[in-house]
Amino acid sequence: MSPSELQQFLEIATEAALAGGAVLEQFWGKLTQIEEKGRPGDLVTEADKAAEAAILSVLKRHLPASHAILAEESGQAGDISSPCLWAIDPLDGTTNYAHQYPFFAVSIGLLIEGKPSLGVVYNPVHQDLFRAAAGLGATLNRRPIRVSTTAALADSLLVTGFAYDRRETLDNNYAEFCHFTHLTQGVRRGGSASVDLAYIACGRLDGYWERGLSPWDMAAGVVLVEEAGGSVSAYDGTPFDIWSGRILATNGCIHGIMRDTLGKIQPLPQFAPKAAG
Ligand code: IPD
Ligand code: CA
Ligand code: CA
Prior knowledge:
The protein is α+β, with helices and mostly antiparallel strands. The protein has two domains: 3-144, Fructose-1,6-Bisphosphatase, Chain A, domain 1, CATH 3.30.540; 153-271, D-Maltodextrin-Binding Protein, domain 2 (3-Layer(aba) Sandwich), CATH 3.40.190. The protein contains seven helices and 15 strands. It has helices spanning 3-27, 46-62, 94-98, 174-183, 193-201, 215-227, 255-264; strands at residues 34-36, 43-45, 68-71, 75-77, 84-92, 105-112, 115-123, 128-133, 137-140, 143-144, 157-160, 186-189, 207-210, 231-233, 247-250. The strands form three sheets. Strands 4-3-5-6-7-8-9-10 form an eight-stranded mixed beta sheet, sandwiched between helices. It has a five-stranded mixed beta sheet with strand order 12-11-13-15-14, with helices on both faces. A two-stranded antiparallel sheet has the order 1-2. α1 runs antiparallel to α2. The chain is globular and about 50 Å long. The model has no long low-confidence stretch (mean pLDDT 95). Bound molecules: D-MYO-inositol-1-phosphate and calcium ion (2 copies). One calcium ion (CA) binds at residues 48, 72, 89, 91-92, 94.
């Protein structure tokens, strides 16, 4: 895709993200429907659904029919194996939003031939609009951003998250959280994967790892980190796979040490899921 086509799609994604963000502002502090989707703690509200409808209405108005969409609340539209697949999270950070903790975003990413190539992450409360596209750089409110230059784990501020299946698996990320908390200036649990990635991109945070994610949580943020000069991979440093659910994203300087550390950590047996019956 040419840079000018990519720029055009970035403008469309921005219009959609702002439309979704406006809906989230309308419902902010006024929710009446908060439901669990399946697993304990996995919430959906009327704001998630209305924001997604607003985003899809903008995208469907502008995008070619050949583009497919994968959106968290409404699922798939079009052929998911299409070379252009949009991955949309209308409200990334629903738990935060439901508690009026102002750390959440609309996340809109475009995968081209499977590669995250364009992303917009928008937090309407903070009015932070993060945008990036492959080869075009990354910006926050239209100003260029770069990852941090923190080179030592001991000087780093990290972020992670815990998937909704954490009570059902020993692979719950608790051991990793303890380990990195011990080795760094701190580990935040932001509650919005797309914002966590955007904060790596602009240097507010130095490293991020998480498991149990969906493509719509990561698609946009990965482009932000890469275009801001950071590194994105699997936990073991091999190429990132958006369908794997796992990500290691850093400023680049601490990537190797985080990869090596993740490779050595053993789970905490006291948090193993209880056997049924
Ligand atoms: C969640 C957030 C959270 C992460 C979860 C995600 P949601 O998305 O990104 O930070 O830890 O795994 O599912 O459910 O608020 O859209
Ligand atoms: Ca999400
Ligand atoms: Ca969501």
